[in-house]
Write a structure and sequence with these properties.
Layout lengths: L1 E5 L20 H28 L8 H17 L2 E5 L2 E5 L3 H10 L2 H18 L6 H25 L8 H24 L6 H31 L3 H44 L20 H11 L1 E8 L8 E6 L4 H5 L19 E4 L5 H10 L3 E8 L4 E10 L8 H32 L9 H13 L4 E9 L2 H7 L1 H18 L5 E5 L2 E7 L3 H15 L3 E3 L2 E3 L2 E8 L11 H16 L5 E3 L2 H23 L2 E10 L4 E13 L3 E3 L1 H10 L3 H21 L5 E5 L2 H4 L4 H12 L6 E6 H5 L2 H14 L2 E7 L6 H6 L4 E4 L1 H5 L5 H16 L3 E4 L5 H10 L3 E2 L10 H9 L2 E3 L6 E3 L5
Parallel strand pairs: 14-15, 17-19, 19-20, 20-21, 21-22, 22-23, 23-24
Antiparallel strand pairs: 1-3, 2-3, 4-5, 4-8, 6-7, 7-8, 9-11, 9-14, 10-11, 12-13, 16-17, 16-24, 17-18, 25-26
Organism: Saccharopolyspora rosea
Protein name: Bifunctional diguanylate cyclase/phosphodiesterase
Pfam families: EAL, GAF, GGDEF
Amino acid sequence: MIEHHRSLGPHPDLGPSRPPVRAEVDPARRRVFTAFSLLVLVAGGLASVATSALTEFHYSPNLLFIGPLLAVGFLLAEQLTIDVDVKRVGWTISFTEIPLILGLLTAPFEVVLAANLLAGLGAQVGRRAASHVVYNAGVLCLEIAVPFAVADLVNRAVTGVSPLWFGPVVGTLTSPLISCGFALAALHVLGGAMRVSAGARLAVRTLAVGLLNTSVGLIGYEVASSTLWGWLLVALVAVAVIGLYRAYSGLMREQRDLEALSDVSLSVARSGQTAAHHPSDLADDADLSINEWEPVAERIREQLNATRVVLRLRLDPSGEVSTLVAGEPLPEAALAAAPTALRDDPLLQLPGSHVRSFRTLEAPDEVRRALRQRGAYEALVVPLRGANQLLGAVEAHDRVSRWRGFGRADVRLLHTLASHLATAMDNRRLLARLRHDAYHDPLTGLLNRTGFREMAAEKLREGRTAVVLRVDLDVLTTISEALGYTWGDRMVVAAGQRMLAELDDEPLARLEANSFAVLLLDRTEQQAHEMAQRLRAVIAEPYPLDRIVVEAGGVAGYASSVPADADPESDVDVLLQRADVAVRAARNGEDGVRGYAPAMGQIFLRRFQLVTQFRQAVDSGQIEVHYQPKVSLPHRQVVGAEALVRWSHPEYGRLDPDEFVPLVEATGLVDALTSFVMECALTKVRQWLDRGLRMSVAVNLSVRNLNDESFPDRVGEALLRHDIPPELLTFELTESSVMDDPDRSLPVLRRLHAMGVVLAVDDFGTGYSSLAYLRQLPVDEVKIDKSFVLGMGTDLGDMAVVRSIVELGHSLDLAVVAEGVEDDAARDQLVEMGCDVAQGYLISRPLSEERLETWLRARTRRGRGTRSETVLTLLH
């Protein structure tokens, strides 16, 4: 028969609350079901009394054996059951029709009723699981009383026409129909009513199963009673059928267990997919809602056929335990007494990750109290252990079957499920950490550039007006070098915390190094400007670091978009780029805050084009080398030239070196530029040598060249390839470039000096210029900055500086070169001071290669009797 054995209210309405989450059954429906159960019990009692009066009790000595055998038969029928949950109600498809028809054929009503009640209710009462004992007792009485009454009435009506077993068969078939009908009624009372068509199909299937069981019982009875040793034959068939059933049941159980494992894994995967993937929600991505595990808990409860499954998980990084209950709710006492830490639970004291089985009759006192608080007679408990910590626990309380407890198959299944859950939780934590790290800055915990772009793009797709505000913290390089980069990191973290305290809910990101970005939604440019000023002022406040106070500055720039934008300019990357341009403009402003203007974009675009087109310009001949001659002042001879780079851009025309050389240096292309200029210069020196002209060429070096340990090797290889004496190659460098990283640049300079290459200090008199620095550098000449040379005629101070540099250089055996010589007076003054070489517009402007050759031919004469040429400069 198909038998209703318990009822549940509606599924729990799980809210977003933290521990604990529990199922709540509607109290009104519970009261209605209690009244309904009392009516069923009264109906069962009245039916039993009426049936007892209708049928006659015939005592026989065989009853002393038949009664216990029937009770055992009902128990065996209960053991061989198939448990199913339909519409929140548990059903048991059992074989109770077999002992029922045997009872109808062999025993009085009272004996069969007692055997059925003993088998049905005894186990529930013994296990303290009699939550619906009143309802079940009434149904058990009706399942026996009605079949006996129907069988008696049918036998009386068809006496002499049908066989004796016809009445018991008809009566037996009424038993599953009664059970099914009352179960549907109970389901309707509890608010889970089944549709009429579905109920009719269930009744037909119930009748079919009942007819099959009744037929088996009747055939067994007839064979045993009418055939010699027939009972042995029936027993053998029964043993074979039971063995076959158990084998089939085992296979079905394994299949259901595999399906359960698959369902649990899919549920975990789906809950992981529905977790927050948006960068703005990733701060607590590991802290997923306990409600997402409800399908997992319910699936475990269904598979174990348990009255209740409790999931206790540590989803919060702080270690707080969240609780989810599937099935019957936990008592209030259990919720109030739940330990705050999993390790304090007496059911989880043993180490390892094995399943523990507890029963109140066998457990220690502490465990028994814990089970009673949970309202459970029996519990399977398994901890969920990750790689290095306790992640949670799974508890299964009280198997639904009336008398059977959890078996070894249930233990194995729960152990496997727990392993899957622990692995899934570990994987989700790892995945959450990877997602968090992908979108967050490891130093400050703020969003990184990727996270900021994703979050801002989502807001732009919603059509909202967004302002990207970029704030840069300016920390002096000398401070980082003096205190170490750890202190610089501490200042960056402190700056981020200050800005967070100043903001409300606006997202803040660290883009890189000392640069931050804020997304302001639905703000005007005036509001963005005010916010930028506030943030800049906050990060510019002094930073107390232990016993010292460090000063810092800040600049801010912002760019805005409008929802009407449909072109790529509304993209986040463009806004970040515009904000960066505004920050660069703010560095030159007075208040340190600038908003983006279209003209800034043109400047940025021009710089971007120059950087990206530089290599192509070198290959296509747009980059040229011009030469500015140098003349020895005492002898008026041209002794060399300085190689100066020029760019004839097809769109922007002739570009000043001050515009594109810093860009080339900042982007790391300066090595290619230096190599190109040096190659052109050495080629020109080789041409002069072939013509008998011994002149040197000076090439400017950047700080990147001085930090390249392989640079001297490349210079030596170029000199050897062109077969040029190293003294005809001069490298000009600034003291600031050397002192930027002296530990790396000085070894490079010493190697170049050892090769015989001439080293000159350019722009001497500015920057770090001092006797102490000059003595450290392995240089051969100094070049007086042109600003002092140009001011000699009008400023006596500049003249004193020039005279001091000339005297200082000569005292150190260094040649002195004066730049910016533009008039005869300056030349004469330099000659009087003893300056060695002059360079400037008085002699010549920088000339292209062709014009330089023309200029040289006009100022040279061939020595008599020799093949060599002497170069003279016509200064008058």
